[in-house]
Amino acid sequence: MIGQRQNQLIIQTQEGVRFSLPLASPVTRLVALVLDLATITAIMSVLGIAFTLMSLVSADVAAAFYALTYFVMSIGYFIFMEWKWRGQTLGKRVMKLRVMDEQGLRLRGNQLIIRNLLRFVDSLPVFYFVGGVVCLLTRRSQRLGDLAGGTVVIRHVDVRAPALQQILGDKYNSFRDHPNAEATLRQSIDPGEAEIALQALRRRNEFDPLERTRLFREIADYLKTRVKMPPSAVFGLTDEQFVRNCVDTLYRAAK
């Protein structure tokens, strides 16, 4: 577990090509956590009005409901938000962080449940002391919930239009003729998966022809399992052109 700290999540494809994504530091994760706890506290304060009224009937029942609600909120908030926002909570979104699978695969629901159920262990004895220590000792800044769920937290780096212009140019994207399919594509592809496709395009000239062909075939085949594009949108496209159209849709067309 203890080893040299990594600043990057290294993902290696079947062809041996390596990609990297920036990992979140324990400090930025702590700031995001404080923001999330403040959000939960604010929600509980609003619900406190209902509990106050309930206490007029029975103080014991009101206290029991408050404890149960806080338990559900403290776990359910993180599970729901990370599922709804694909690996982000309010705090993570503000800090530009995102939870993803440590192998670069699609984040699964059971991973979100496991990593968040272990928050109670990570929070022992006070204010995430155990989780903070484990984050400092692990190479990828993972707390116990991350280790059990097979997840990491990465920094989400914004990609600006000029960089995309250099990579994609002004080439025609057949996907733009099918806005519904584009919307499905954006909903189906995780940011981590999109980043890998983008990095492949950025580095395509670094690969020899055979490696390049195999790499884009692997990425295209995976993306095709996430969304089915209309036949007219993919007719005549090479694997690299398919990936390029996907990246254009995910990073530029949505804006």
Quickly describe the structure.
The protein is mainly α and 255 residues long. It contains 13 helices and 4 strands.
Structure, explained:
- The chain is mainly alpha-helical and 255 residues long.
- The protein has two domains: 8-155, no CATH class; 161-253, no CATH class.
- It contains 13 helices and four strands.
- Strands 1-2 form a two-stranded antiparallel sheet. A two-stranded antiparallel ribbon has the order 3-4.
- Strand 1 (8-12) and strand 2 form a beta hairpin.
- Helix 2 (59-84) crosses helix 4 (109-117) and helix 10 (191-202) packs across helix 13 (239-253).
Shape: elongated
Helix % is 55-70%
**What do the pLDDT scores average to?**
86
Which stretches are poorly predicted, pLDDT < 50 over at least 5 residues?
Answer: none
Distance between the first and last residues' Cα:
41 Å
Main sheet: strands, sense, barrel: 2 strands, antiparallel
Strand and helix order: EEHHHEHHHHEHHHHHH
- Assembly state: single chain
Protein name: RDD family protein
InterPro entries: RDD
Pfam families: RDD (PF06271)
Domain RDD: 24-149
Furnish the topology, listing elements before pairings.
Elements lengths: L7 E5 L5 E5 L3 H30 L3 H26 L5 H6 L1 E5 L7 H9 L1 H4 L6 H9 L6 H6 L1 E5 L5 H8 L10 H10 L2 H12 L6 H18 L4 H4 L4 H15 L2
Antiparallel strand pairs: 1-2, 3-4
Subcellular location: Membrane
Main location: membrane
GO cellular component, one term: membrane
Key features of this structure:
two-stranded antiparallel ribbon, transmembrane, RDD family protein, single chain, 255 residues, mainly alpha, elongated, transmembrane helix
